[in-house]
Amino acid sequence: MLASAAINLRSSSASRAFSKALPNSTAAPFSLVRTLSPSVSRFSVRSMADSAAAPFKKIQIHRGDTAFDAYVVGKEDAPGIVVLQEWWGVDFEIKNHAMKISQLAHGFKALIPDLYRGKVGLDVAEAQHLMDGLDWQGAVKDIQASANWLKADGSKKV
């Protein structure tokens, strides 16, 4: 049986580390380390997210009487995939993941719906506040609308 887990931890400190042994495993613990320079400010983090926007096309998706921003990258006629943000929002890292996904194999069209409506958590407290305030039913509808947009925009498979 293959055990898998997706865990993302961040703290306000410059160094982020996570160590954990897989349950029922004789393998040694693994470690994920993520560091940001202490000189990275809130402004520069926001700037990094904005700088990742270059290959992305910012679009607006409408569902009912609501509209939300989304970011799309990849070949026009490629199979589509909806890439969901972490609890931080649509940041530099999520955009990088979407870009890498769009370049896999023969290519994909990756779309990131902005579930936080432009807000990005820059520390644990802010990210938690954004997550706590998320309209979950609305987020599910946004994700479905994103899949529908990909289909309407030429992705035969989503």
From TrEMBL:
InterPro entries: AB_hydrolase_fold, Dienelactn_hydro, Dienelactone_hydrolase-like
GO molecular function, one term: hydrolase activity
Ranges for domain Dienelactone hydrolase: 68-155
Name the record gives this protein: Dienelactone hydrolase domain-containing protein
